[in-house]
Amino acid sequence: MRTNLVTREGYDKLRDELNYLWREYRPEITAKVTWAASLGDRSENADYKENKRLLRKIDSRIRFLRKRLEILKVVDFAPEQAGRVFFGAWVEIENDDGDTKTFRIVGPDEIYDRKDYISIDSPMARALLKKEEDDQVDVKTPEGIRVWYINRISYAEDNQEG
User: Fold this and answer.
1) What is the pLDDT of residue 157?
2) What does the domain layout of the chain look like in residue ranges?
């Protein structure tokens, strides 16, 4: 199951990617394909083949982004969320060994290229939802139940590390 939630920042990033692909990158690659096609025999033309493959990849991503952006629901911070873990929260947790982790709970479309983001669909995020600071959280993992404690919850943007 894939949740259709996204933070405002995540939505803006996906929209910006779509605009870049459609307005800048695709026209650039289309021009290269046109140039390579003008050289003659396409069966032996590596520039043509490679750029045509790249154009298909770009078009696929554009189609995906257009469809995805239509169904995503932007979730903004609401003051009543303060003090509890909800979508968009930065959470610092610690286990009995003293290991700490800090991450933000976001939509599945936002976790790529960010080691400090986890999907709302992950077992960790699901276990943390609606919990408060100092709460114990039991997370089901393939290795068994892992116990974590919530040290800090924040919705401030100054927590971004990446």
Assistant:
1) 61
2) 5-74, 79-154
Strand 117-119 vs strand 100-106: parallel, antiparallel, or unpaired? parallel
Q: Each residue of 4-39: pLDDT tens digit? A: 999 999 999 999 999 999 999 999 999 999 988 888
Alpha carbon of 115 to those of 87, 160, 162: distances in Å? Answer: 17, 11, 8
Q: Does an H or E element contain 132, and which?
A: none
d(CA 86, CA 128): 8
Q: Which of 55, 23, 49 is nearest to 36 (CA)?
A: 49
What residue type is assigned to position 29 of the chain?
Answer: I
CB-based burial of residue 150 (10 Å sphere; 0-12 exposed, 13-18 middle, 19+ buried)?
Answer: buried
Query: Per CATH, the architecture of 79-154 is what?
Result: Roll (3.10)
- The C-alpha atoms of residue 126 and residue 143 are separated, in whole angstroms, by 17
Structure-block tokens of residue 115: 């080691």
- Tens of pLDDT, residue by residue over 54-101, are 999 999 999 999 999 999 999 998 888 888 999 999 999 999 999 999
In the CATH scheme, what architecture does the domain 5-74 have? Orthogonal Bundle (1.10)
